[in-house]
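Predict the assembly for these two chains.
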Amino acid sequence: MSSYFDSIAIDFIRITLYVLVSLFFILIAFVLVRRVLLKKWAIIMEESEAKILPTLYWYLDGEMSKLDFSNSLNNRYEVIAAFRNITEMIDNFDGEQKKKLRSLLNLPHFNRYFIESLRNGTPLKLAQACMYFEKKHTTERTVINRLRELQYHEYPVIKYASTLALINTSEQKIRDEAMNVFIHSEGLASMAINDIIYKYCNFHENSGRASDVLFRHITDVDVPVRNAASIIKMMPDLGFYQLSDDLVEFFRFPYLHDVEGVLTSALIDTLADLSGRNILSLVPENKTWNSEHSNVRLSTAKWIQKFYSEELDPILLKLAEDDDLEVRIIAQLALTQSSNSAKMHNFLNTRYHQEWNEILHTGGSYVDTV
Amino acid sequence: MSKKILLIDDDTNIANYVKFRLQKKGYEIRHIDNGLDGVDGIKEFKPDLVILDMMMPGIDGREVAEIVKEENLMDISRIIVLSGKEVSEEVKALFDLGIHDYLQKPFNIDNLIIRIERALSNLPSKE
């Protein structure tokens, strides 16, 4: 009986070994084939680039016509190589060369290739196609509809690229809709949001209306707070000082949809830039120094530090004993501006005296946290 | 003998086209795609003019200009800077160092060539 179980166990081990060895060889073969294919692809791309670049330069210098350049593109590798170089050069060159490069984007080779990529491409091809239609300022209805679908893609980079392409179209209504869908999306990087907002405002027919649209998004409870916070932080860079009063009103009243103080902190930082000292009275009024979120207390401390007023010393003293080290440093640095700074340590708990002395003598550059 | 121009720019695509245009004008061009090799290039190639990109990984354009000045590798007024930034503190600092000219990206290639030719005709001979 025992020898029967032994033989089953041996068979089981043998089969497992065969499976593992086979899997190992399959994996090795897969990696090798993939490496060979990638290398081959890189060589083909290099060759295509080497062939296309001189023709592109001849075209730019007027030694070759657009038609001849078009005829020199013989396969998809050359189309990709040409597109890559054309877009890089568009970004870096100005004047006549830029115009000539832009006109190449209308060649049927590119249109055909990127419409196909837009229909059935991998994420990489989709992103490239979006970039093409962004550079081209497309107005084709079928393309616009497909770009709108891609705004709901699972990859944030495709959401971003498709939105950028839609914002580059000539119709304001399409741009507004694209902005609306984008800003309601979750998981966006703040750099992507900043870029879209900047371009949306830049292309908007009416700057006043652009600021109204953005303010509507800030107060919309369905817009993720991190996106709303990114819009708020962009306000000074966009020069939307006319929104100061609206933002103050927004700050004055509670907004239940804030998460971890992200919105409040962004509002404090932005209002410090937009309105400065004028609205410092909001600090005691709104009790942001007493927030449960350290980022809000930190923004408050920075605001007071920037526009220091002795009337706010009691608040600074509370912040100078905060649980968060960064908040304490900023608050104590702010207190050094007080005419009473020499006596200030008397108002602090003794356990913060060493920290206070270090901050006083090093300007906050060194604090022994041990 | 043709004038020698050294182009230090990590953007190979742009550099190749600038090189193409300048070679047609009869200049001897060398392109180097990073700041560190760019400094060595200045020592070896002994260019009449350097076109230097500001934004490069590793040693950037400003650091290259500072090394040129500190080590007296060449006359710093023989440097034209290309930058993606608008006139900023960094560009001002480069002018304080003594660079010849500055051009912001995106730039007009014809404009760059005019500036190069003007610089080469206005600068005293190296000898």
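Residues 2-60 of chain A form the longest helix (59 residues). The interface with chain B takes residues 53-54, 57, 60-61, 85, 88-89, 91-98 of chain A (CB under 8 Å).
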